Amino acid sequence: MKSLRSRPGALLLLALCLTASGVESCWTQPLQADDQEDWLTIANIGDIMCHDPQLAAAWDAQTQQYNFDGVFEPIAAELSSADLTIANLETTLPGERRLYSGYPEFGSPDALPAAAKRAGVDVLTLANNHSVDKGRRGILRTIDVVEELGFRRLGTYRSLDDWNQHRILWLEIKGLRLALLNYTYGTNGIRVPAGVVVNQIENGRQIAEDLELARGQSPDAIIVIFHYGTEYMRLPDAYQRRWTDFALQNGADIVLGGHPHVVQPYQITSITDRFGETRDRLIIYSTGNFVSNQQKRYTDGGIIFRFALQKGPVRARFRQISYTPVWVWRDRSGGRLSYRILPAAQYLNNDQSLRLDSAALQRLRLFHSDLSAHLTESRARAENYEAALSADASGADMYFNGLAQTGESGTGCFGPGRSCAGR
After folding, report:
1. Contact 226, 242 (CB under 8 A)
2. What's phi and psi for 402, nearest 5 deg?
3. List of residues 6+ apart from 328 with CB closer than 8 A
4. Rounded CA separation 362/225 (Å)
5. Average pLDDT for 325-342
């Protein structure tokens, strides 16, 4: 994993908490930026996909090889700046060019995850609706390749024994111990081959058992990564809310979602789970597309969702919740099509070394404007939450008590007919 980069001289507030007789007391004290070294920064990005035009663009006829480095190069510094960067690999790695294909049955060159690794991605989730697109061979070889490239992986498994040994991905970074779990809503109706394992959301009993196993080993945080939701729907559906609540009720601290191919809201909620433990939980329903050939409005980009974890007396507390909009540029400036993932805000004035044509600039600005408006409520609540934590000992409790009085706490805040916007 990577080391955190701090900004010298910045002043922060750290919430210190002690628990006595079941009552948590907190206070704040100022910290210099160097103390951020004790904070674990996490970046979660959207779906890494590879449609047919991307395959063609990555092929180098001179070297007779695929190369995706240029796709990730503009965003590599952002990915590498986090201690832990997580992505969903929404394709398989079948190993033969004749098996490479885009939608509907994805198969991609090893060069795709290799480029993501060089750009700073650390963990790949493999349980998604395209996990079985190339059958048993695709599942097995994808696992082999991502491990050989140095990724940590979760969600699909070579065998029941492999699943038993690795059903929870344990990571220990900066003194924090994390438990990660990954599940998909399905595999597009393709039967999972005998002998291999793809984690499925519908197996609620298994999710509960996995979470119970993780809780029993006293992690600082349990992160559940779901591949779920209705494609192209910009608000979470009932299915997402149901399984998000299920994970939180069974002890998850953070739920990271994907699959809809558009960005959906994020939120902080205070939940008393079925074990009687009340604490803050963090949810993002979808980070959108990180890279793909999808070009319709809202689908041509996504976000890097960022947060920091700060060690607490029982579970880690999350801080500094933010996001970076990313937009996929179909660049034809070199005489042939290239794909580049751009940090959108940096390109709004078109004053970077990579210059966009007028049509591309217009689309990037529209994407950025749409996203900013769409996440206004999420952004404001995260900022208020951070301010409350920094202000005084009871800040976060006061924040959530206010939500409870307006009926806005819980996972359903952004559901159809229950938007928090304007309240």
Report:
1. no
2. -65, -40
3. 289, 291, 292, 300, 301, 339, 340, 341, 342
4. 33
5. 94
3-state helix/strand/coil string of the chain: CCCCCCCCCCEEEEEEEEEECCEEEEEEEEEEHHHHHHCEEEEEEEEECCCHHHHHHHEECCCCEECCHHHHHHHHHHHHCCCEEEEEECCCCCCCHHHCECCCCCECCCHHHHHHHHHCCCEEECCCCCCCCCHHHHHHHHHHHHHHCCCEEECEECCHHHHHHHCCEEEEECCEEEEEEEEECCCCCCCCCCCCEECECCCHHHHHHHHHHHHCCCCCEEEEEEECCCCCCCCCCHHHHHHHHHHHHCCCCEEEEECCCCECCEEEEEEECCCCCEEEEEEECCEEEEECCCCCCCCCEEEEEEEEEECCCCCCEEEEEEEEEEEEEEECCCCCCEEEEEEHHHHCCCCCCCCCCHHHHHHHHHHHHHHHHHCHHHHHHHHHHHHHHHHCCCHHHHHHHHHHHHCCCCCCCCCCCCCCCCC
C-alpha to C-alpha distance for 130 and 300, rounded to whole angstroms: 20
Q: At what angle do helices 395-406 and 376-391 cross, to 10 degrees?
A: 140
243 neighbors 237 (Cβ within 8 angstroms) = no
Q: What is the pLDDT of residues 171-224, one digit of tens each?
A: 999 999 999 999 999 999 999 999 999 999 998 999 999 999 999 999 999 999
C-alpha 255/C-alpha 265 separation (Å) is: 12
Residue type, 357: D
pLDDT in tens, 70-120: 999 999 999 999 999 999 999 999 999 999 999 999 999 999 999 999 999
Number of other residues whose CB lies within 10 A of the CB of residue 204: 15
Torsion of CA 49, 182, 98, 338, to 10 degrees: 20
Do 94 and 133 form a contact (C-beta atoms < 8 A)?
A: no
pLDDT of the residue at 414: 39
Token reading at 30: 């100022």
Buried-state track 75-97, b at ≥16 Cβ within 10 A, e below 16? bbebbbbbbbbbbbbbbbbbbee
Question: Residue type at 355?
Answer: R
Residue with tokens 């004035």: 349
What is the value of pTM for the model shown?
Answer: 0.86
